[in-house]
Write a structure and sequence with these properties.
This protein is mainly alpha-helical and 153 residues long. Helix content is 51%, strand content 12%. The protein has helices at residues 6-39, 47-58, 63-75, 105-118, 148-152, and strands spanning 82-89, 95-102, 122-123. Strand 1 and strand 2 form a beta hairpin.
């Protein structure tokens, strides 16, 4: 009866939930560190940082983790993440803009070029479709207690 003990089932569930939490914590941590580098460590003067801290608290990131990330980004981390916007054309000539957060610009460009080619599009030069877009706002949808189809409706 391998795999049927109560402790083993608890352990597997805990590993799964801890892994999901760690993934969220890492993603938010990277975004916070980029916001600190671009706008400074003070949330009162850096609105993007204030928004990300609020988002981190909604996702149950502990306060000491948030402060540690801010101090690490403030002091200069060895890993430099940068926000890059790529432009291109999708299938049927549809204009596409992709916002990325990466530590390796060359790898990300190669990956995106591969994804565009694989799906019938091509990665364009900087400014090829940017004039078609203007940012009006940001829509943030939380699916914690909703079904994805219900949220789309």
């Amino acid at each position: 009866m391998s795999g049927h003990s109560k402790w083993n089932n608890i352990k597997r569930k805990k590993e799964k939930t801890d892994g999901a939490k760690a993934k969220v914590f890492t993603k938010i941590g990277r975004e916070i560190s980029v916001a600190v580098r671009t706008g400074g460590p003070n949330p009162a003067s850096n609105s993007k940082l204030a928004d990300l801290i609020a988002k981190a608290k909604r996702m149950s990131v502990p306060n000491d983790n948030i402060q540690r990330i801010i101090k690490k980004a403030e002091g200069g981390d060895k890993t430099e993440f940068e926000a890059i916007t790529y432009e291109g054309y999708g299938p049927g000539g549809v204009a596409v803009m992709v916002e990325t957060l990466t530590d390796n610009r060359n790898r990300t460009a190669a990956d995106l070029r591969h994804y565009f080619d694989k799906n019938g599009g091509n990665l364009g030069a900087m400014g090829c479709v940017g004039f078609l877009f203007s940012q009006k706002g940001v829509i943030d949808i939380s699916l914690e207690d909703k079904d994805a189809d219900e949220a789309m409706m």
